[in-house]
Specification:
Layout: H1 4-8, H2 22-29, E1 42-51, E2 59-69, E3 78-82, H3 89-97, E4 107-112, E5 115-116, E6 124-127, H4 139-143, H5 145-149, H6 154-167, H7 172-175, H8 185-197, E7 203-207, H9 215-232, E8 235-240, H10 243-249, E9 252-256, E10 263-268, H11 276-279, H12 283-302
Parallel strand pairs: 3-8, 3-9, 6-7, 7-8
Antiparallel strand pairs: 1-2, 1-4, 4-5, 9-10
Helix pairs in contact: 6-8, 10-12
Bound molecules: adenosine-5'-diphosphate.
Length: about 300
């Protein structure tokens, strides 16, 4: 399936030959049977990624990464991935997504629904920081893109897409015919979120999606995301280096070390039950942010 990145010719590498394995790929999108205890929705076992492995430019970005996120079918979970720039957060996300050149990893196992990841799939939706949309498509056609690829009729996909345009806080009447260059950064990111979530992925991978937004828009988008996540009951992996954002959005937070990134600590944090702006003003929230910021600093300093 072509992506805006393909169109812009920038982000993605050619498809990995592994992606041509239809049987293995089919396993990943297979829903777990209703009565069995489901395997973890995502599991990393001793994962390492060395770029340019075997050459004199070899660089190990992540090393010995281990975690297991349970498949909570009726709620999903919000997993924050927190760590300094360059510690391998995007690498982790793109290994789950099956996107080259981060995929494939060089050691260990990356499992989704208990199956090795072999390629990207509709069960995993990705939202990047740079609002990826097709510049030559309207908002409506951008949001409808995934459904179009699935072969849905124009009338059906437009109806569902207009619903999603509304769900992400845009106006289906006023905004549907606009092109990306006519939208603000926040609006573009709303389109990108709708474009990804319309396919109802069970796993949502978000790579610093609000990093380029101003603080007020950012808080609004955080609230929007919490609402959509509750509705979709998906498991969200959310990369950020912003401690308040991780604390507000996360159920659990994986704190990563500097490069080569590995998990230094796993924390459980209270669920967001009030709007971001309100929660972030509260002393208990600020104390937690301060504490986690302190733990991150300490862990960084204490590493040899
Ligand atoms: P983060 O998302 O935490 O900022 P990344 O996962 O993007 O970190 O990158 C981790 C490290 O791997 C960085 O040092 C980065 O320069 C390096 N890296 C990322 N992609 C590549 C690549 N394709 N080739 C070589 N090094 C890479």
């Amino acid at each position: 399936m072509p992506t805006p990145e393909d169109e812009q010719g920038s982000l993605e590498e050619p498809p990995n030959p592994l992606s041509e394995t239809p049987a293995a790929a089919a396993d990943i999108s297979k829903p777990p049977s209703a009565d069995a205890d489901p395997p973890p929705i995502v599991e990393f076992i001793g994962v390492e990624k060395t770029y340019a492995a075997g050459t004199d430019k070899a660089f190990t970005a992540i090393s010995d990464v281990n975690f297991s996120v349970p498949d909570l079918r009726n709620t999903g979970e919000f997993v924050g991935i927190l760590g300094p720039s360059g510690c391998g957060k995007s690498t982790i996300l793109r290994l789950i997504a099956g996107l080259a050149p981060q995929f494939p990893h060089t050691k260990g196992q990356v499992l989704v629904h208990g199956q090795p990841v072999t390629k990207p799939g509709p069960d995993r939706g990705m939202v990047f920081q740079d609002y990826t949309s097709f510049s030559n498509r309207t908002v409506l056609d951008n949001v409808a893109f995934g459904l179009e690829c699935q072969g849905m009729s124009k009338a059906d996909r437009y109806e569902i897409s207009r619903e999603w345009i509304g769900k992400v806080g845009l106006d289906p009447d006023a905004d549907s015919d606009k092109y990306p260059h006519q939208l603000s950064g926040g609006m573009k990111q709303r389109v990108a979120i709708a474009r990804s979530l319309i396919l109802k992925p069970r796993i949502i991978l978000m790579d610093e999606p609000f990093g380029a937004l101003d603080p007020v828009t950012r808080q609004r988008m955080q609230d929007l995301l919490v609402g959509l996540w509750r509705e979709l009951e998906a498991t969200v992996f959310f990369v950020t280096h912003d401690v308040p954002e991780a604390v507000y959005l996360g159920d659990r937070i994986y704190m990563f070390s500097n490069s080569p990134g590995t998990i230094l600590r796993e924390l459980e944090v209270p669920l967001p039950d009030r709007p971001s702006r309100q929660m972030q003003r509260e002393t208990s929230f600020q104390d937690l942010v301060y504490e986690i910021g302190g733990v991150l600093d300490e862990l960084e300093e204490g590493r040899d």
